[in-house]
Amino acid sequence: MAILEARDVETGYEDAKIIHGVDVDVYADELVTLIGPNGAGKSTLLKALFGMIECWDGTVVFNGEDITNLEPHRVTRKGICYVPQVDNIFPSLTVYENLRMGAYILDDVPEAALHDVYDRFPVLEERKNQVAGTLSGGQRQMLAMGRGLMVDPDLLFIDEPSAGLAPELVDDVFEKIVEIRDDGTAVLFVEQNARKALQVSDRGYVLEMGRNQFEGTGDELLENEQVEELYLGG
Ligand SMILES: Nc1ncnc2c1ncn2[C@@H]1O[C@H](COP(=O)(O)OP(=O)(O)O)[C@@H](O)[C@H]1O
Ligand SMILES: [Mg+2]
Predict the structure, then answer these.
(1) 122-171 pLDDT, tens digit each
(2) Cα of 36 from ligand 1 centre, angstroms
(3) Which residues, 6+ apart, have CB-to-CB distance to 134 below 8 Å?
């Protein structure tokens, strides 16, 4: 059964409709990628699924429950965390303080989750007292993902985790995402690095101009000639 079922989602900004009836499913333990050209509406779709902007139409069902237009902190309580592309850490706080803030919906710091995050990202434990703004780009991305994992979500949304990273760091980030999936947290992520993302994904969706264009397993999309030509650089 899909843990996330989004159907006919429509949303946008002011009176500009950006997403025109999109469907997305994520099954438990799946790594799913959203690809598509710049401006296709990928980030907008994630925000609507997470309740950061209003869904104008359609439904978002999570673990069998309608969460359409629930506020983000309530969506987090249901088990979804969202790592935005930018402003995803507090630069003036320490690494530890950032992680603690990741669990702000809980009354206490979840020590078990904190240890899991430190195990997954040893560099965060080494630098727990360092001010986050002084981390490298790759370390910041690890921290952003670590924050999302502090509440042990069933599903993690990640928007362009590899943006601005050197190629060797892109592989590190993808490896971490695969590990997160392997350890039981489903992931829906947006990536410009489409070929590489599909190579590690169970399934993918191609979005263009706010509509579903293609969907399939990672391999199906990689082998699709149209997808290859239009979205993977031929
Ligand atoms: N806050 C905003 N206000 C108005 N328009 C926006 C806003 N954010 C994005 N858009 C517009 O929505 C469209 C989709 O953007 P976005 O979801 O960021 O695409 P993608 O993530 O696929 O690159 C673009 O035309 C963009 O200019
Ligand atoms: Mg985007």
Answers:
(1) 999 999 999 999 999 999 999 999 999 999 999 999 999 999 898 889 99
(2) 13
(3) none
Is the Cβ atom of 11 under 6 angstroms away from ligand 1? Answer: no
DSSP character for 121?
A: -
Backbone angles phi, psi at 160, to 5 degrees: 50, 60
Residue 173 to residue 163: CA distance in whole angstroms: 11
| pLDDT one-digit tens code per residue, 59-101 | 999 999 999 999 999 999 999 999 999 999 999 999 999 999 9
Question: What one-letter code names the amino acid at 130?
Answer: Q
Q: From ligand 1's centre to the CA of 41, what distance in Å?
A: 6
CB 55 within 8 A of CB 8: no
Answer for the pair 230, 40: CB distance below 8 angstroms, yes or no.
Answer: no
User: In whole angstroms, what is the distance from residue 190 CA to residue 180 CA?
Assistant: 16
